[in-house]
Structure prediction request, 605 residues.
Amino acid sequence: MLGYGLRRLLEAILVLWLAATLTFVAMQLTPGDPAQTLLAASGASPAEIARRRAQLGLDDPLPVQYVRYLADLARGDLGVSWLHSRSVGRMILEQLPATAELALAATAFGTLLGVALGLLAALYRETWVDALATGLAVLGLSTPVFWSGLLAMLFFSLYLGWFPSAGGGDLRHLVLPAAVLGFSLSGSVARLVRAQVVEVLRQPFVLAALARGLPLRRILLFHVLRPAIGPAVTVIALQLGFLLSGAVVTESVFARQGLGRLAVQAIFWRDLPVVRGMVLVGAAAYLLTSLLADLLQAWLDPRLRGRDEG
Amino acid sequence: MKRSLRRPEQNVLERALRALAIPPLQAISPRRPLVRQPLALFSLLWLAVIALGAALAPYLAPAGPLATDPSHSVLPPSPGRWLGTDFLGRDVLARLLWGGRWTLRMGIEALALAVGLGLPLGLVAGSRGGSLDALLMRLVDAWLSFPSLLLAMAVVAALGPGLSSVAVAVGLAAAAPYARVARGTARGIRAQPYIDAARAVGASPWRIILRHILPNAAPVLVAFAATQLGWVLLHGAALNFLGLGVPPGTPEWGAMLAEGRAYLRDAPWAVVAPGVSLTLTVLAANIIGDRLGQE
Prediction:
């Protein structure tokens, strides 16, 4: 277990290093001079721009810049925003709680809905219940959040007046965005849970449980759903990237505070350090959750450790 | 005859499953052609309608997509204006038809990039194996570790906003999963005895990839490409919705939704039309990919 964990950790660090290198290369390939972009608005003289270049270390050879960039990252320093001259790390931290709140609420809703739909579809396989549940799942996968968001806003806030249409703050503001994002998440969860449950139902231990005369509800809850939920946990963890992406769009639809606004603004003004910082933080978060999910899986199901090491 | 050949314990299991109201295990019939499945047929038809509407937009559209008419703004759907007009008096149907051009073009360009990049990478990695495979797949892992839309947004930031940047960004983001699937499929086929046979008679590695692995991988690759089309349409439209793609006022479905957001109460039809069209198009691509992917 310890060896497996260590190996997975090293792998995650390797991928993170590759991701950091990719972003470094991308920044180098991007046309435009950062110092010039930084000072263009203030009408700085060429001499000032040159001084700023030296200050930012842009005149150093590329390998030096690369090593310094990695060293900064290792210390958690994501650089300085070109637009606001502020620490990118701090800017991201400020917006993180609002996005995390939305992502967590959406995950909770999407997981509940997805497991329920998946279980129903599997139990009533190839009946109208299955068709309905699977149809809802595919609809969830195919509906853009910015469309379902507008639709939800139209019905639940403009026509019915149940929830506020935009802004943030209390829980009432959270309901619609979380439901919309959760619905699109539930699609992949439902499909996976359905496949898993169908698979588990074929296992002999379900038959054994039936033969022992256990009540049906008990069999479903403890013998069927429990082993089926393991892989679903991994997939939900791996949906973090999807959630972050979806949260960006959802925030924009409902005019919420959060990383979405920061990202859109940064891209619009080509504030590349902020964009790079967000991408790297997203990648690190993804790698961390997938690592935790794998370790959780390996802990739950010891067979996986052997298979992966062999 | 066939029934009696089954192992007895399987019959017991099936009877137990039937007690749980679960259909027997062998109930899945072999795949019928797409046009024989109602849902898949509708999906194909819808895509054809959208493509035709986009291609013939100049002839079909009742008005120019940019023609404003302040005296006829925010009109609900009526016999003369099937989908109503938006807040500037522009005909929604005309904008929808013209918008299909932008949206579909972006989707096809992005898909071409994703397949053009992902297919060779994945096929070569999966067919050759070894250290090349390990290296390429670590790169793909790094690529996949970026949240997809954030990655696409970063590419747009690097290239500058615009529709071609959106296509490139979404295509690049979709290339990594495509390479993954192509590699996995190629690996599975490489283990087949007929590949050993081809190697034994002296076929070159390239010949094996192109003549033996590629044709056998094609069904999976086509199915996944259809699913990817849905994905790139969804994410490309999202970038346009966020205002990072087409310039303001362009009749593109994502951008139309963003514009209509401010007038949601007064002109809901102006967002319903592009929203439903986009959802149905993505749904159709997903359904076709799904059905093609079934054994």
Notes: Residues 88-123 of chain A form the longest helix (36 residues). Chain A touches chain B through 63 residues (CB under 8 Å). The mean pLDDT of chain A is 80. DSSP finds 14 helices and no strands in chain A.
